[in-house]
Every structure is written in structure tokens, then in C-alpha cells.
Amino acid sequence: MNSGVRHGDGPASANQTPKHMSTTKELRGTDAIEKYKEIVSHNPICMFLTRPEKNPMPSRPMATQKVCDQGNFWFLSSRSSMKNEDIAKNPDVQLIFSNPSDSEFLSVSGKASVVNDEAKKKELWGPLTKAWFPDGVEDPDLTVIKVSPDEGHYWDTKNGKIISMLKIVAAAVTGHPADAGVHGNVKL
Predict the structure, then answer these.
(1) What b-and-e string marks burial along 58-81, b requiring 16 or more CB atoms within 10 Å of the CB?
(2) Taking the domains of the chain in order of start, what are their residue ranges?
(3) Most buried residue, 82, 91, 98, 149, by CB count within 10 Å?
(4) Is 67 helix (H, G, I), strand (E, B) or coil?
(5) What is the pTM (predicted TM-score) of this model?
(6) Which residues pair with 151 in a beta bridge?
(7) What's the whole-number average pLDDT of the chain?
(8) What CATH homologous superfamily does 23-187 map to?
(9) Region class of 123: left (phi > 0), else alpha (psi between -120 and 50), else beta
(10) pLDDT in tens, 56-95
């Protein structure tokens, strides 16, 4: 899926020397799933983008209920929502997680499906969900969205937020490039 979101170091072209240093670490299989879980556990809210053929892509904030051991992202959604309609037209979606306070970012492209599974609804149900579905887990408008990732890209710090900030300050003082952390592709 080509969503127009560019993965990498930013606007520098391939012929330019990067102005900052970073480490690339590709994650696959279990390591990729663990990275998904780690980033989502720190901030489960993402921008959920649908209909990549539209410009701009429709987007809305969504709370991730779970990242399962198979690497799927699970959400609760209203049967009558525009996102459910969008998924019926085109299952290609993108999830964008941003946790600036911990310098963690994740972009995931995948296929979404709307699931009407009573057991999964009960598994994912939480006390705050009642704010959107006042009739509880039996609410007839409640559906589950499963996103199976095709590919993703993450950006993270190597040393934690405090050490990373100290390195940035040191780089500013010395004029040497900052260590921008670690990033890479994640693929199941």
C-alpha cells in the first residue's frame, strides 16, 4: 500500500550526507510483534487511516485494544461508523502511533476486516468502552476490527529518553551529529 507517508530519515535525498546518525535495525517475526506490543503498550492511541485512494486519506484517532501474539491489531468500532464503511470498500489501512514523550513512533500498513465475534468483543471490552457503547458488550452496534499488518516502520531511542536528550544537548554544544536513535522496518 502506498499511502504517501515516506519511511526513513526525513527530507534528505539519497545523494546528501545525513545530518544526524541513527542505527537501522530490521525486525521480523517475534521481534516485530514484540516491538508492536511495546510501542502500543506505552500509548495505545493511533491515527487510523482508511481509503488510501482518497486524498486526503480519512483518519481518526482509535484506541488499540490489543496486539495479539500473531501481530494483529484489534479495535472496537461502531457498525455504523464511516471507518467500517471505508473498510468494506477497501481493506487497506494505515495505523500511525506517536509517543513523543518517549520518542517512540510506529507506522503500520495492513489489511483490516470487520469481525462480528462475540467472544472477541468480550475479550476486548473494557470499562471505558461503555462511553461509546452504552448498552454494553451486547450492544448491537459493537463490532471488532482486526488489522493484519503487511509492513511497518518504527523509530525509537536506543538509550531511553533522558540519555537521548543528553546526547542531543552534547551534540548541540560540540557541533557533532546527534545520535538519532534506532529505526527500521518491521515485518511479520
Answers:
(1) ebeebbbbebeeebbbbbbbeeeb
(2) 23-187
(3) 149
(4) strand
(5) 0.77
(6) 109
(7) 81
(8) Electron Transport, Fmn-binding Protein; Chain A (2.30.110.10)
(9) alpha
(10) 999 999 999 999 999 999 999 999 999 999 999 999 999 9
Q: Dig out the grid coordinates for 22 from the structure.
A: 541513527
Grid coordinates 513512533 are at which residue? 105
End-to-end alpha-carbon separation of the chain, Å? Answer: 16
**Non-local CB neighbours of 144 within 8 Å, separated by 6+ positions:** 74, 75, 76, 77, 114, 115, 116, 117, 120, 121, 124
Residue reference for cell 548541540 = 172
Chain centroid to CA 91: 16
Cell of 133: 457503547
* Distances from the Cα of 50 to the Cα of 39, 105, 129, 152, angstroms: 21, 19, 22, 16
Q: Hey, what's the cell of 56?
A: 486526503
